[in-house]
Automatic annotation (TrEMBL):
Keywords per UniProt: Oxidoreductase
Residue ranges constituting the Gfo/Idh/MocA-like oxidoreductase N-terminal domain according to the UniProt record: 9-135
Protein's name in the database: Oxidoreductase, NAD-binding domain protein
Chain segments annotated as transmembrane: none
Length: 397
């Protein structure tokens, strides 16, 4: 007996790269998760840029496009909302979505600070809304298998963890001084942009981080002021353009203690020359270890003997791999991870149960990032403030 499909009208706020990916991911759900009884309609896109609105209707197939996100949120026909705007608008738009009673999928960092993230998380929790936060690396099938192995005790008691998120997207000194480098607009630098993923993955695989000590560095002190059209961290300036000061960290090094007693080393850079998007997670236990690198996202290295690592290719028994590929050796990509995220968000909405990474998880990662910022200023160990709304990283398998 078939279950009647439910139609959900989606609204997407900000049609840059991530907004376009959210839009395509909504449409991908019916192809890869046909058992979910939902039909998504790309109803309304909101973007102040005319080019973004035109792309929404002409290329992505949205029924409507508006310039003001408030018009989108006020529309009673909109069932779910994606918030893909720059960091400095997340808090304002998320609170407006909560006020409108709209379940939302928001990109990370959820707020410019733990305080903003807390207000979003508590507001959504009080309103009874299911949510999703863009921790897409959770959805890598190899990460799903790593988490299973750790929780099953396959590598023994966890002793230490290493997380390294290094990228080169800001390595060029002529990269324009866009909003990402301004504290008022972005909040932290690489801590919020990259390391929030690392903190979330560590807690998702191993467990809660209790305290941290950290140091940060700004290695490119000044950058060319941006042109009127520069928006992303890939935007370029000219050598003869006037310069402005970079206000948030290019690099962070963090030591952490887990609730379990395990120790962690976390490192992240946005100006590393060499790594393109080298995101590494290593977990060591008393009987073995495992490691994963986004550069080779379909592989998991695993050791449980003195013979060293063996490489395991992701296959149908790893997470949601079988939804995309028939067998090991044919790999998945970044966009597939967002399709899984869209599925988990929509499943959460349809069943009114939290499956996707939640605003509680977004707040939890923000508290670790803020503690690292505080430690870098004081030179002291800082305890992580507790989160008083439900999270999903601690859910049992």
């Amino acid at each position: 007996m078939s279950v009647e499909s439910r139609t959900l009208n989606a609204g997407v706020i900000s049609l840059g790269w991530m907004g376009r990916l959210h839009s395509r991911s909504y449409l991908a759900v019916k192809h890869h998760f046909s058992d979910l009884p939902v039909n998504v309609v790309l109803h309304t896109a909101a973007d102040p840029d005319e080019g973004g609105r035109r792309h929404a209707t002409e290329a992505l197939g949205f029924l409507h496009a508006v310039s003001d996100y408030k018009e989108l949120l006020a529309n009673p026909d909109i069932d779910v909302v994606s918030i893909c705007s720059p960091n400095f608008l997340h808090h304002e738009i998320a609170l407006a979505a909560i006020e409108a009673g709209k379940p939302f999928w928001i990109e990370k960092p959820m707020g410019r600070s733990a305080t903003e993230s807390k207000e979003i998380a508590q507001g959504a929790n009080e309103a009874g809304l299911v949510t999703s936060v863009g921790f897409n690396y959770r959805h890598v099938p190899a990460i799903a298998e790593a988490r299973r192995l750790v929780h099953a005790g396959e590598i023994g008691t966890i002793t230490n963890v290493r997380v390294s998120f290094k990228a080169d997207y800001s390595a060029d000194p002529l990269g324009a001084l866009t909003w990402r480098f301004k504290a008022e607009l972005a909040g932290s630098g690489v801590l919020g942009d990259l390391m929030s993923h690392g903190f979330d993955l560590a807690q998702y695989i191993v467990g809660k981080i209790d305290s941290v000590t950290a140091t940060n560095g700004i290695f490119i002190q000044q950058r060319p002021l941006p042109s009127a059209k520069a928006a992303s961290h890939f935007s370029q300036g000219s050598d003869d353009a006037p310069k402005g000061e970079v206000e948030n960290e290019d690099y962070t090094a963090v030591l952490g203690r887990f609730e379990s007693g395990a120790l962690g080393v976390f490192e992240s850079s946005r100006v590393a020359v060499g790594p393109r998007a080298e995101y590494i997670v290593e977990v060591y236990g008393t009987r073995g270890s495992l490691r994963w690198n986004f550069h080779r996202l379909n592989e998991l290295e695993f050791a449980d003997t003195a013979d060293g690592y063996r490489t395991i290719m992701s296959g149908p028994n790893f997470g949601d791999f079988s939804r995309f590929q028939p067998g090991a050796g044919t790999g998945m990509g970044f966009d597939n991870l967002k399709a899984i995220e869209a599925y988990l968000f929509l499943k959460s909405v349809v069943e009114n149960k939290q499956y996707a990474p939640s605003v509680g998880d977004g707040w939890a990662a923000a508290e670790v990032a803020d503690a690292a910022l505080e430690s870098a200023e004081s030179g002291q160990w800082v305890d992580i403030k507790p989160v008083d709304v439900p999270t999903t990283y601690g859910q049992k398998l």
